[in-house]
Design goal:
Blueprint (H helix, E strand, L loop, with lengths): L1 E8 L12 E7 L14 H8 L15 H8 L3 H14 L8 E5 L5 E7 L3 H21 L4 H18 L3 H12 L4 E3 L6 E3 L6 E4 L2 E2 L4 H8 L1 H10 L7 E4 L5 H7 L5 E5 L9 E4 L2 H14 L5 E5 L4 E8 L2 E9 L2 E3 L6 H9 L4 E2 L6 E2 L5 H10 L12 E3 L11 E4 L6 H14 L3 E8 L6 H4 L2 E7 L4 H4 L10 H8 L10 E5 L4 H13 L5 E4 L3 E4 L2 E5 L5 H9 L5 E5 L2 H7 L6 E6 L15 H13 L1 E10 L3 H4 L8 E6 L5 H8 L3 E6 L2 E6 L2 E7 L12 H17 L3 H9 L13 E4 L4 E4 L5 H11 L6 E5 L7 H14 L2 E4 L12 H13 L4 E4 L3 H10 L6 E4 L4 H9 L5 E5 L5 E3 L8 H9 L1
Parallel strand pairs: 16-17, 22-26, 22-27, 23-26, 27-28, 28-29, 29-30, 34-38, 35-36, 35-38, 36-37
Antiparallel strand pairs: 1-2, 2-4, 3-4, 5-6, 6-7, 7-8, 9-12, 10-11, 10-12, 13-14, 13-20, 14-19, 15-18, 20-21, 23-24, 24-25, 30-31, 31-32, 33-34, 33-39, 39-40
Length: about 900
Amino acid sequence: MKILRIQTLRGPNYWSIRRHKLIVMRLDLEDLAEKPSNTISGFYDGLTEVLPSLVEHYCSPGCRGGFLTRVREGTMMGHIVEHVALELQELVGMEVGFGRTRETSTPGVYQVVFEYRDERAGRYAARAAVRLCRSIVDTGHYPESEIQQDLEDLKDLWAQAALGPSTETLVNEAEARGIPWFPLSARAMIQLGYGVHQKRIQATLTDRSSILGVELACDKEGTKQILLDSGIPVPRGTVIHYLDELQGAIDEVGGYPIVIKPLDGNHGRGITIDIDSWKDAEAAYDAASAASKTRTVIVERFYKGRDHRVLVVNGKLVAVAERVPAHVVGDGRSTIQELIDETNRDPNRGEGHDNVLTRLQVDRTTWSLLDRKGYTLETILEEGEIFYLRSTANLSTGGIAIDRTDEIHPENLWIAQRVAKIIGLDICGIDVVTEDISRPLRETDGVIVEVNAAPGFRMHVCPSRGLPRNVAAPVFDMLFPDNAPTRVPILAVTGTNGKTTTTRLLAHIVKQTGQTVGYTTTDGTYIGDFLVEKGDNTGPQSAELILKDPTVEVAVLETARGGILRSGLAFERCDVGMVLNVAADHLGIGDIDTIEQMANLKAVLVEAVAPKGYAILNADDPRVAAMANKIKCKVAYFSMDPDSEVIREHTAKGGLAAIYENGYLSIREGDWTTRIEEAVNVPLTMGARAPFMIANALAASLAAFAHGVEVEQIRAGLGTFQASVSQTPGRMNLFNLGSYHALVDYAHNPASYEALAGFVRNWPGERIGVVGGPGDRRDEDFVTLGRLSAEMFDRIIVKEDDDTRGRPRGDAADLIVRGIESANREARFESILDESEAIEIALDEASSGSLVVILPESVSRAIRAIEARKPIGEESFSKNGKASLSPKSAESSSSEEYSRSSL
């Protein structure tokens, strides 16, 4: 077997709308292409020996052991690889279950699709599954050492991908509330929500957290002084910088027992408590100094009592946990080391913060505590005797937590909420030492020993004993109060032709509302009136740029088939999804071989529309109109035919539609019709002479109306948007060159050639075409381009793209010529493969009154060639439907008058 390609999907996709995290592996079975599993000697036994847990895979016939029944009876290796990849992830704690395997149009080559939790682990599982199955085919088994190594590697990848318990708690709450989130590329930050409504967190710091409060909490001595000044009970203590100051500090706080800790430490690092000798004090000083960035150490009076963490969010107490240091309990027969080992066998314990509990470790503090007791690791503890391995109660060092939220005394609650306000933290962890949290601190000689910014949530969410607390909920109530919006509207556009023009027009219309619009196109990514990034930006990465931007109020996203295939959508749902058309383009690429498959791919966009949103569908394209049968949102149709049966049936039920009737772009809902604007007054339609532009304008107007844009604003947008280099580069850009005209359009497939023909055939003079197409299209597509060119133009120059996309130079041109000759043996044509040369010759030899139509690979290069000839101006169409010049020149000419009267 040979892996040809592995792709990672991250959003709604061709394989599943609900399951966003999928690995797609293109797998060539090679010698196993015609060998079902029941014909491979020893395969079933070898597979069940190494992965007996596959019995839990139901598959068809839908019962326990169903998959293994298929293996025994005979199934193809791609299907088996899918299940093995899923099971490898399951065995290390990654819950996955979805998978599909389909043979491609290439015999023996399969698309193997399965779910993942972590991208790197998913890709590893794909390779490991192929390796495992190949080994069993060849040898009848897969070595134990190999499967163990695979599982260890997957465990490591899963651990590395972990967000951390506090961040994961917040992310889970976001998902439960339907709030989208992104990991950002710096400082482990997470974005919650889209655009202007976004918030950011870093662990349990938020973008509301006061930097003054965070800095003060990190300054333990400063915190203590501020609290002392406010009448809060805090430990007696002092700060020192050198060892020779230690004895004086001990005397100042009243002698032993004492606590020594770093001034700027965290997670219990460098802290030693209950010190009662000079020897231990020296060792504790060294540990604290090493843990402090400034080598500054705090010496405090030690207060006996139990350690509690009080969590305050947005000024309100939300949880209390008693923290018990890492310890073991004797049974009268086991050594301390054996008790540690037994405790660590608990599956809930892991390294660091990865699990509910942390594994017990022996370090300097443990040895010190052993020495105090006169114990060693070989000491056998009496039954019920507790030995503490740590002097601090942090969960990260193996401690446990007991929920005490319902036990805290009202006075202590009041003190905790005051402390959070005094320090100035929106999320505040307060460490309290007291014998009994249910009694006032003043009665128990209790103290506030520390205040923490970015406190951990693990002890409250997963206490060892007691009721778990949803401490993430008050954080989200604070960040998004009173059901504040978390998303910006997403209006997404796909189709074979017209996507860029329609996206730009829709963005322009929405701008009339005064909102900041971020939009993506094949020309670049824009926010407001400014270009952010140039390029073909119609994939999920560019969409994410828009959704992450804190100034964007509405997102209008051109969504191409390539991005959906490679990565899925960048959003789990949109508010308006539009499919303009589906035609025979890009077939044979990415295992999309038929127009029906292409329609299913484009339908992903409208299947991802929110239930209350709108799918905008082309009623004149049967494949697009049929998408209404598979979606769960509201539907609106657009049509160039006011008598369309689809429109008539839809509006008879009160449905929404846009139609072209009596020369007007109109909105119809139920039995009423609102005329937006006459087509001749819409510059984009080129005086109503470009039907496909009218269709684009209808679609954009309908999407805007469905989104809630007022009719007056739609009309204003239509009237101020033109097919020009500035607004729609490469989309019907018409230049007046004095004695002739030049038109640049990015038509590159049969459907777009046919749409363009509706305009070109009405030109009164000679029509010259510079034609070609992308090299990765099918042979029959190039032949069709040639045939359409012969029907559209009086003279044809056949060129090729610079990037032939794997085709031999001249091959695409020869196929176009074949199409020209099949349509018209008398056609005037020549092949000039270099695009620049072909354009220059066409412009040089253009006759008076002619139209040179350039269908380029590089739009910018074609426009530069035209502008070098100093055109009188770009032509647009004013509200009277007549051609006019853009303000390149104020001069008029006889040729301008010619074009106005003849177009």
